[in-house]
Protein: Shikimate dehydrogenase (NADP(+))
Amino acid sequence: MIDRYAVFGNPIKHSKSPFIHQQFAKQTGQELSYEKLLAPVDGFEDAVTIFFEQGGKGANVTVPFKEQAFVLCNQCSASAQLAKAVNTLWLDENGNLIGDNTDGLGLVADLERQFGDIAKKSIVILGAGGAVRGCIYPLLDKKVNRIVIANRTKVKATDLASEINEPNVKGMGLDDLSADTDCDILINATSSGVEGKVPYISNEFIHAQIKAYDMFYGSEKTAFIEWVEQRGITQSADGLGMLVGQAAESFTRWRNVKPQIEPVLLQLRKQML
Ligand code: ATR
Structure:
């Protein structure tokens, strides 16, 4: 029987994970199956338990189950612990359920692919939700100079920074961003893109040397990228590469071989046009 993998979510119809992992398998000569599984909103635990009992080798988890997956795990990575969310599951040799959160590693890989080395760079992240939580440790591991978490609701950003408790991680309100805020890379990790909106930030803070990254992606240019381009920023990228990057990290955990991101990203982009 070939090794079986799956992604759990609700909804799950539009997930690109099966395509990405099947391409990785082809590329690295691995034989495996990867399917989308729709779990009932109140039935995630049962669905995952049955999947692994029936011999499933590994799973991805997407909205709205990442927090439930974290609770289910017997053991998980530091990134997953800070995020309190898990996107990758597998069993160890003793049958323990292991969880990781590869979103942040996917982000870091894509930032470096698009913008070069991020060591010593000053990062400003917009948002303070789960998407931000998953990314802080992978960014710190890259020895960035400073991370500012800027959120519409300021207290969420300052609370998260206190929880992280690192001298170079600071929380503030979106409206505290000013010409004095050092920024090499600006990351949009708010969910504003879902509604085609842009988080409010002052024009004074934006300058043309900033490299902008939107975790959101779509078949067209995102609202955030349009907005930064109108303000003179010429280097920007959306989050499709992060999606492929986090999948590559999951694949590596499961199969012990690292697939190439670029060819799969190109295919995916073509499909979305
Ligand atoms: P996720 O897991 O995707 O991070 P989340 O935990 O619901 O989702 O967090 C959503 C984030 O997007 C929050 O930081 C939210 O800001 P608030 O804490 O002030 O609610 C931010 N957000 C959503 N819509 C926004 C908008 N239109 N402008 C600015 N920030 C927005």
The pocket of 2'-monophosphoadenosine-5'-diphosphate is lined by residues 127-131, 151-153, 156, 190-192, 197, 199 (CB under 6 Å). The mean pLDDT is 96.
